[in-house]
Amino acid sequence: MPDKMAAARSAEWRSVCEKFRRAQYLTDVESKRDPENDPFRSKYKARETLKEIYSIIKSFDSEENDSEDNEAEQLGVDGEPGYRNAHPGDSPAGLRATRLGVTEYFLGVNHVETEELSAGEEHLMNCMKLLDKCLVSRENVSVFIQARNQLGILWAGRDEIEKAQGFLESAESIYIRYMKEDGQPPTDLTEFFVGEEDELSQQERTKRFEMAYTHTLYYLAQVYKNMEQYEKAGRYCHITLQRQLEFDQFVPLDWAINAATLSQYYITKSRYMEARHCLAAASVIAGLAGEVPSEAAAQESTARQEKNSAFFPGNICTFRCMFCVDFHNLRKKDNIGELDVDRQEELKRARRREEEEKEQGRKSTVLFGLSETSDSICALEEKVSCVVPLDFQEARAVFLVGQSHVAEAKEYFQMDGHVTDHIEILQDHSALFSVLSFFEEDLERRCKMHKRRVDMLEPICKDLNAQYYLLICRQLQFELAETYYEMMDLKLALANKQDELDAHTIKKFNHLCNASIKYYQTFLDSIRSPEGKFPEKLEDDVLRPALVAKFRIARLHSRHISSNVPTQLENLSRSLDCYNFVVHYCEENPEARKAVETELELSEEMVSLLPLKIDRLRNKMTSSN
Fold first, then answer.
1. pTM higher than the cut 0.85
2. pLDDT(508) > 50
3. Cβ atoms of residues 475 and 526 within 8 Å
4. Which CATH number does the domain housing residue 29 bear?
């Protein structure tokens, strides 16, 4: 009789294994062929099969399982029953709860994938309750981690970020503890329903387990980002990218986009070595699309190649941002941005010492470990320095690298069909010229660099339909206004070096003033209501630009050169009106003061001084008459 019972149980177990294979096939393969009008058909079938598996396991004779469990206890490691090496197909009672938990896990994932989140949560929590009866062991550590991963994703999707954080940090601590106390390749979830002949290799077990933990880190990076813990999010994102390469589980374009995005974070923290490495790695890995023989990459379809359109603008933007950094704490400049040469030499010496020290301690922690691409990554890194440029030659070297990427992107994103992307590229190109001009000591040549910016942006701004591209039009209008404003400042500096201004210089200077005023005013007009009324309260996204535009227009009117006294009076009156606007707006909206502290202070000063100047001019005009 025992032999017959054993044979029956063996046949029953083979049936369970077959059902599980069927459920996996329906989920992973057949579901991709489901029709659009019935997208979850195969997953519903898989769900029914998983329910059958659950019922069969539940019905196993408890007394027999208790007996088997006693035998399994003897297989523990160092006398600790939580660490068993028995094959899961032997079905000891000690593993029955885990098998039920694994089935609940797959049911939970099934419900989540079919957009039944509440039912998915219920099954995943049932899985957790069943696992609470077990110690973390080589057999069940994977399901311990993956159940928490799924619950973390689920709660994050509901914007319950703290709950998501709790589950994911628990998964992280379980992994760390397991690797410290055991560290052997653990049983994969699928192995609870296979025969000995279908066991995974140790290498495959390790790969799947490590990728489950990589997913934990990836989801934690998103959680920390949502919680505005940006330093932690950046660190977890970097580790995730490293592990994806290490275990050969990445889609090249997805990986490249994430690495390029991470470089932006490093730039905001002035960590240019890390930013450069991320960008270089992103460029190299993006080039592997369709070539990397990983499981994830093998699934990459032709349609995914369109993600190039998301990657390359990020590529350019990163080069631009690496170049266009905040120099305020690194150099001294006068009111038109002159370099302090002695200060620059001092900074160079200090910079070399600092970077050498930093690189020794940081480089080994940031490198992405894919040996076959490391040479290509290093070659790209060597093309551009990761330190802030401090003279024209250093700045020009970075400029040329950035400009080469601009040229490449322009070829890819033509204006016809890629309007937004093409304009972003032009803005990046303009930004490169803007910062390079800072290092140019010759004011005339600097002015010509700004003229290049005008030449590339002005035709686009004139032709673009503001009805469809309002935000882009505003950006271009404001940038053109600022560019003309900078050119006006440079011409003023040149004029101050002359004994007497000729008519041509005056005409050119006034043209720059008027052009800047025109674009600032066009920007301000874009904020008006359809009826032409300027808003009483400015929206946050236009608050500072609008007040700065008013301030700059005020200054431009006061700088306009004319020998005609009535014209001078008219310009000063317009200037006073604009200064008054800034002051009155901040009086009525005190929260705006922080946005324009410097401009407000100068406006208040000019509001008190300009009336005196206007009165003197009027008296002069009266006396001359």
1. no
2. yes
3. no
4. 1.25.40
